[in-house]
Specification:
Elements (H helix, E strand, L loop, with lengths): L1 H10 L8 E3 L1 H7 L2 E6 L9 H10 L3 H6 L1 E4 L3 H12 L4 E6 L4 H9 L3 E5 L3 H15 L2 E2 L6 H7 L1 H9 L5 E5 L4 H13 L4 E7 L4 H8 L24 H7 E7 L1 H15 L5 H12 L1 H4 L3 E6 L12
Parallel strand pairs: 2-10, 3-4, 3-6, 4-5, 7-8, 7-10, 8-9
Antiparallel strand pairs: 1-2
Helix pairs in contact: 3-5, 3-8, 5-6, 8-10, 9-10, 10-12, 13-14
Protein backbone atom coordinates (compact mmCIF):
# COMPACT_ATOMS: atom_id res chain seq x y z
CA UNK A 1 0.00 0.00 0.00
CA UNK A 2 2.77 2.43 0.90
CA UNK A 3 4.52 1.68 -2.39
CA UNK A 4 1.39 2.70 -4.31
CA UNK A 5 0.99 5.88 -2.25
CA UNK A 6 4.61 6.72 -3.08
CA UNK A 7 3.85 6.26 -6.78
CA UNK A 8 0.99 8.74 -6.57
CA UNK A 9 3.04 11.25 -4.59
CA UNK A 10 5.88 10.93 -7.12
CA UNK A 11 3.81 11.71 -10.20
CA UNK A 12 1.39 14.26 -8.71
CA UNK A 13 3.38 17.33 -9.85
CA UNK A 14 3.38 16.01 -13.43
CA UNK A 15 -0.32 15.18 -13.95
CA UNK A 16 -3.77 16.76 -13.73
CA UNK A 17 -6.16 15.56 -11.05
CA UNK A 18 -9.01 14.95 -13.46
CA UNK A 19 -12.70 15.47 -12.64
CA UNK A 20 -15.21 12.80 -11.68
CA UNK A 21 -18.57 13.33 -13.38
CA UNK A 22 -21.94 12.07 -12.19
CA UNK A 23 -24.98 12.21 -14.49
CA UNK A 24 -28.64 11.79 -13.59
CA UNK A 25 -29.38 10.90 -17.22
CA UNK A 26 -26.74 8.16 -17.25
CA UNK A 27 -27.95 6.81 -13.93
CA UNK A 28 -31.54 6.66 -15.18
CA UNK A 29 -30.53 5.03 -18.45
CA UNK A 30 -28.49 2.31 -16.70
CA UNK A 31 -30.42 2.00 -13.41
CA UNK A 32 -27.07 2.32 -11.67
CA UNK A 33 -25.16 4.96 -9.71
CA UNK A 34 -22.31 5.73 -12.12
CA UNK A 35 -19.20 7.85 -11.60
CA UNK A 36 -17.00 8.66 -14.59
CA UNK A 37 -13.29 9.31 -13.95
CA UNK A 38 -12.57 11.62 -16.85
CA UNK A 39 -9.02 11.04 -18.05
CA UNK A 40 -10.08 12.62 -21.34
CA UNK A 41 -9.22 15.85 -19.49
CA UNK A 42 -5.74 14.56 -18.62
CA UNK A 43 -2.55 15.97 -20.18
CA UNK A 44 -2.24 14.67 -23.79
CA UNK A 45 -5.90 13.61 -23.59
CA UNK A 46 -5.46 10.24 -21.89
CA UNK A 47 -4.45 8.54 -18.65
CA UNK A 48 -1.12 7.41 -20.10
CA UNK A 49 0.89 10.41 -18.89
CA UNK A 50 0.57 8.83 -15.42
CA UNK A 51 2.46 5.65 -16.26
CA UNK A 52 4.90 7.39 -18.58
CA UNK A 53 5.85 9.90 -15.87
CA UNK A 54 6.30 7.20 -13.22
CA UNK A 55 8.48 5.09 -15.51
CA UNK A 56 10.83 7.97 -16.34
CA UNK A 57 10.98 9.19 -12.73
CA UNK A 58 12.13 5.72 -11.68
CA UNK A 59 15.11 5.77 -14.05
CA UNK A 60 18.61 6.54 -12.83
CA UNK A 61 20.32 9.77 -13.83
CA UNK A 62 22.52 7.83 -16.26
CA UNK A 63 19.49 6.23 -17.88
CA UNK A 64 17.69 9.55 -18.19
CA UNK A 65 20.71 11.10 -19.86
CA UNK A 66 20.48 8.47 -22.62
CA UNK A 67 16.76 8.90 -23.17
CA UNK A 68 13.78 6.59 -23.50
CA UNK A 69 12.28 4.72 -26.44
CA UNK A 70 8.89 3.16 -27.11
CA UNK A 71 6.65 2.10 -29.97
CA UNK A 72 3.10 3.39 -30.12
CA UNK A 73 0.59 4.60 -32.67
CA UNK A 74 -1.04 7.18 -30.46
CA UNK A 75 -1.74 7.88 -26.80
CA UNK A 76 1.39 6.42 -25.18
CA UNK A 77 3.56 8.00 -27.88
CA UNK A 78 2.18 11.40 -26.89
CA UNK A 79 2.33 10.68 -23.16
CA UNK A 80 5.96 9.52 -23.14
CA UNK A 81 7.00 12.45 -25.33
CA UNK A 82 5.46 15.01 -22.98
CA UNK A 83 6.60 13.27 -19.80
CA UNK A 84 10.14 13.15 -21.18
CA UNK A 85 10.02 16.79 -22.23
CA UNK A 86 8.85 17.84 -18.77
CA UNK A 87 11.76 15.97 -17.19
CA UNK A 88 14.44 17.01 -19.68
CA UNK A 89 14.79 13.57 -21.26
CA UNK A 90 14.99 12.63 -24.94
CA UNK A 91 12.11 10.45 -26.19
CA UNK A 92 12.51 8.27 -29.28
CA UNK A 93 9.11 7.21 -30.59
CA UNK A 94 8.55 4.50 -33.19
CA UNK A 95 5.21 5.02 -34.92
CA UNK A 96 3.66 2.81 -37.60
CA UNK A 97 3.06 4.37 -41.02
CA UNK A 98 -0.65 3.80 -40.43
CA UNK A 99 -0.74 6.14 -37.42
CA UNK A 100 -3.02 9.17 -37.94
CA UNK A 101 -1.14 12.28 -39.01
CA UNK A 102 -2.77 14.27 -36.19
CA UNK A 103 -1.19 11.93 -33.61
CA UNK A 104 2.20 12.03 -35.28
CA UNK A 105 2.08 15.83 -35.25
CA UNK A 106 1.14 15.83 -31.56
CA UNK A 107 4.15 13.65 -30.73
CA UNK A 108 6.44 16.03 -32.61
CA UNK A 109 4.85 19.01 -30.83
CA UNK A 110 5.62 17.34 -27.49
CA UNK A 111 9.27 16.95 -28.51
CA UNK A 112 9.27 13.28 -29.45
CA UNK A 113 11.85 12.10 -32.01
CA UNK A 114 9.74 10.08 -34.43
CA UNK A 115 10.81 7.07 -36.49
CA UNK A 116 8.25 5.62 -38.91
CA UNK A 117 8.02 1.84 -39.25
CA UNK A 118 5.90 -0.63 -41.16
CA UNK A 119 2.51 -1.12 -39.44
CA UNK A 120 3.28 -4.48 -37.86
CA UNK A 121 4.23 -5.27 -34.27
CA UNK A 122 7.38 -7.05 -35.43
CA UNK A 123 8.53 -4.00 -37.40
CA UNK A 124 7.81 -1.68 -34.50
CA UNK A 125 9.75 -3.87 -32.08
CA UNK A 126 12.68 -4.19 -34.48
CA UNK A 127 12.90 -0.43 -34.97
CA UNK A 128 12.70 0.18 -31.20
CA UNK A 129 15.47 -2.32 -30.52
CA UNK A 130 17.69 -0.72 -33.17
CA UNK A 131 17.27 2.69 -31.53
CA UNK A 132 17.89 1.21 -28.09
CA UNK A 133 21.19 -0.33 -29.24
CA UNK A 134 22.33 2.79 -31.08
CA UNK A 135 21.48 5.33 -28.37
CA UNK A 136 21.48 3.39 -25.11
CA UNK A 137 17.94 4.64 -24.48
CA UNK A 138 15.78 2.66 -22.04
CA UNK A 139 12.84 0.87 -23.65
CA UNK A 140 9.52 1.57 -21.93
CA UNK A 141 6.64 -0.63 -23.00
CA UNK A 142 3.27 1.16 -23.26
CA UNK A 143 1.47 -1.34 -20.99
CA UNK A 144 3.68 -4.28 -20.00
CA UNK A 145 5.99 -2.46 -17.60
CA UNK A 146 5.42 -2.52 -13.84
CA UNK A 147 6.28 1.18 -13.36
CA UNK A 148 3.81 2.07 -16.13
CA UNK A 149 1.17 -0.21 -14.57
CA UNK A 150 1.63 1.40 -11.14
CA UNK A 151 1.34 4.87 -12.62
CA UNK A 152 -1.81 4.10 -14.60
CA UNK A 153 -3.50 2.80 -11.46
CA UNK A 154 -3.38 6.24 -9.87
CA UNK A 155 -6.46 7.19 -11.91
CA UNK A 156 -8.39 4.56 -9.95
CA UNK A 157 -6.88 5.87 -6.70
CA UNK A 158 -8.17 9.39 -7.38
CA UNK A 159 -11.62 8.00 -8.15
CA UNK A 160 -11.62 6.03 -4.89
CA UNK A 161 -10.64 9.21 -3.04
CA UNK A 162 -13.53 11.16 -4.55
CA UNK A 163 -16.23 8.65 -3.60
CA UNK A 164 -16.28 5.51 -1.46
CA UNK A 165 -17.94 2.11 -1.31
CA UNK A 166 -17.89 1.27 -5.00
CA UNK A 167 -19.44 -2.08 -5.84
CA UNK A 168 -17.68 -2.22 -9.20
CA UNK A 169 -14.81 -0.55 -11.02
CA UNK A 170 -14.83 -0.86 -14.82
CA UNK A 171 -11.86 -0.26 -17.11
CA UNK A 172 -11.38 -0.91 -20.83
CA UNK A 173 -8.83 -3.59 -21.74
CA UNK A 174 -6.30 -3.30 -24.55
CA UNK A 175 -2.68 -3.89 -23.58
CA UNK A 176 -3.72 -4.36 -19.96
CA UNK A 177 -1.80 -1.56 -18.25
CA UNK A 178 -4.79 0.47 -17.06
CA UNK A 179 -6.84 -2.42 -15.74
CA UNK A 180 -3.83 -4.04 -14.04
CA UNK A 181 -3.02 -0.77 -12.27
CA UNK A 182 -6.70 -0.40 -11.38
CA UNK A 183 -6.60 -3.88 -9.83
CA UNK A 184 -3.60 -3.00 -7.66
CA UNK A 185 -5.10 0.21 -6.28
CA UNK A 186 -8.62 -1.17 -5.87
CA UNK A 187 -7.32 -4.22 -4.02
CA UNK A 188 -5.19 -2.07 -1.72
CA UNK A 189 -7.63 0.75 -0.96
CA UNK A 190 -11.09 -0.74 -1.57
CA UNK A 191 -10.83 -4.54 -1.42
CA UNK A 192 -14.59 -5.06 -1.51
CA UNK A 193 -14.78 -3.37 -4.94
CA UNK A 194 -14.88 -5.83 -7.83
CA UNK A 195 -12.84 -4.95 -10.91
CA UNK A 196 -14.48 -5.66 -14.27
CA UNK A 197 -12.92 -5.36 -17.70
CA UNK A 198 -14.66 -4.14 -20.85
CA UNK A 199 -13.53 -5.29 -24.28
CA UNK A 200 -14.72 -5.14 -27.90
CA UNK A 201 -16.21 -8.45 -29.04
CA UNK A 202 -14.08 -8.25 -32.19
CA UNK A 203 -10.81 -8.22 -30.20
CA UNK A 204 -11.68 -10.38 -27.20
CA UNK A 205 -8.23 -11.80 -26.45
CA UNK A 206 -8.37 -10.69 -22.79
CA UNK A 207 -11.78 -12.37 -22.34
CA UNK A 208 -10.38 -15.61 -23.77
CA UNK A 209 -7.17 -15.24 -21.76
CA UNK A 210 -9.12 -14.96 -18.52
CA UNK A 211 -11.00 -18.13 -19.45
CA UNK A 212 -7.97 -20.18 -20.52
CA UNK A 213 -5.46 -18.89 -17.95
CA UNK A 214 -2.88 -18.05 -20.65
CA UNK A 215 -2.31 -15.07 -22.94
CA UNK A 216 -4.39 -15.41 -26.11
CA UNK A 217 -4.05 -13.39 -29.30
CA UNK A 218 -6.36 -11.98 -31.98
CA UNK A 219 -6.17 -12.95 -35.64
CA UNK A 220 -7.76 -9.66 -36.66
CA UNK A 221 -8.10 -6.24 -35.02
CA UNK A 222 -11.11 -4.81 -36.79
CA UNK A 223 -12.67 -2.57 -34.15
CA UNK A 224 -13.49 1.10 -33.89
CA UNK A 225 -11.80 1.09 -30.46
CA UNK A 226 -8.33 1.61 -31.90
CA UNK A 227 -6.69 1.94 -28.48
CA UNK A 228 -7.68 -1.61 -27.53
CA UNK A 229 -6.07 -3.53 -30.38
CA UNK A 230 -2.93 -4.51 -28.47
CA UNK A 231 -2.56 -7.63 -26.36
CA UNK A 232 -1.76 -8.48 -22.74
CA UNK A 233 1.77 -8.97 -21.46
CA UNK A 234 3.63 -11.13 -18.96
CA UNK A 235 3.75 -8.37 -16.31
CA UNK A 236 0.11 -7.29 -16.36
CA UNK A 237 -1.64 -10.60 -17.13
CA UNK A 238 -0.90 -12.27 -13.76
CA UNK A 239 -2.41 -9.23 -12.00
CA UNK A 240 -5.49 -9.36 -14.24
CA UNK A 241 -5.85 -13.11 -13.77
CA UNK A 242 -5.76 -12.71 -10.00
CA UNK A 243 -8.04 -9.72 -9.54
CA UNK A 244 -10.41 -9.21 -12.49
CA UNK A 245 -13.83 -10.67 -11.72
CA UNK A 246 -15.06 -10.81 -15.31
CA UNK A 247 -14.72 -9.21 -18.72
CA UNK A 248 -17.78 -7.90 -20.53
CA UNK A 249 -17.64 -7.94 -24.33
CA UNK A 250 -19.51 -5.34 -26.38
CA UNK A 251 -20.32 -5.06 -30.07
CA UNK A 252 -19.27 -2.25 -32.38
CA UNK A 253 -22.85 -0.91 -32.45
CA UNK A 254 -22.95 -0.91 -28.63
CA UNK A 255 -19.65 0.99 -28.48
CA UNK A 256 -20.94 3.63 -30.91
CA UNK A 257 -24.24 3.97 -29.04
CA UNK A 258 -22.46 4.49 -25.70
CA UNK A 259 -20.06 6.99 -27.23
CA UNK A 260 -22.95 8.93 -28.75
CA UNK A 261 -24.85 8.92 -25.45
CA UNK A 262 -21.90 10.48 -23.58
CA UNK A 263 -21.24 13.06 -26.31
CA UNK A 264 -24.89 14.10 -26.66
CA UNK A 265 -26.18 13.81 -23.10
CA UNK A 266 -23.10 14.60 -21.01
CA UNK A 267 -21.41 16.96 -23.47
CA UNK A 268 -17.95 15.46 -23.06
CA UNK A 269 -15.58 14.15 -25.71
CA UNK A 270 -14.62 10.51 -25.26
CA UNK A 271 -12.89 8.16 -27.67
CA UNK A 272 -14.30 4.76 -28.69
CA UNK A 273 -11.97 2.89 -26.33
CA UNK A 274 -13.50 4.79 -23.40
CA UNK A 275 -17.00 4.16 -24.70
CA UNK A 276 -16.34 0.41 -24.42
CA UNK A 277 -16.38 0.73 -20.61
CA UNK A 278 -19.62 2.73 -20.65
CA UNK A 279 -21.19 0.25 -23.06
CA UNK A 280 -20.49 -2.55 -20.58
CA UNK A 281 -22.95 -1.01 -18.09
CA UNK A 282 -25.69 -0.85 -20.71
CA UNK A 283 -24.84 -4.43 -21.74
CA UNK A 284 -25.42 -5.94 -18.28
CA UNK A 285 -28.31 -4.01 -16.67
CA UNK A 286 -29.11 -6.79 -14.18
CA UNK A 287 -25.55 -6.96 -12.88
CA UNK A 288 -25.25 -3.22 -12.29
CA UNK A 289 -28.83 -2.42 -11.19
CA UNK A 290 -28.79 -0.17 -8.09
CA UNK A 291 -25.00 -0.63 -7.77
CA UNK A 292 -22.33 2.03 -7.32
CA UNK A 293 -20.08 1.84 -10.36
CA UNK A 294 -16.83 3.63 -11.14
CA UNK A 295 -15.86 3.88 -14.80
CA UNK A 296 -12.39 4.84 -15.99
CA UNK A 297 -12.80 7.04 -19.05
CA UNK A 298 -9.41 6.36 -20.58
CA UNK A 299 -9.18 9.24 -23.05
CA UNK A 300 -10.69 11.65 -25.51
CA UNK A 301 -8.34 11.57 -28.47
CA UNK A 302 -10.61 11.21 -31.47
CA UNK A 303 -10.58 12.58 -35.01
CA UNK A 304 -13.75 14.70 -35.00
CA UNK A 305 -13.86 14.60 -38.81
CA UNK A 306 -14.41 10.82 -38.64
CA UNK A 307 -17.05 10.37 -35.94
CA UNK A 308 -19.02 7.08 -36.20
CA UNK A 309 -22.37 8.79 -35.63
Amino acid sequence: MQHLLNVYKRIQPHIHKTPVLHSRLLNEATNANVFLKCENFQKTGSYKIRGASNAILNLSKTQRNKGVVTHSSGNFAQALSLAAKNLGVKAYIVMPSSAPEIKRKAVLDYGGIVTISEPTLAARELASEKIRKETGATFIHPSNNIDVIDGQGTACYELLQSASDFDYMIAPIGGGGLIAGTCLFANAFSPSTKVIGAEPLKVDDAYRSLKSGKIETNKTANTIADGLKTQLGNHNFPIILKHVTQIIRVTEDEIIAAMRFVWERMKITIEPSSAVAVAAIFKEPTLFKNKKVGVLISGGNVDITKLPF
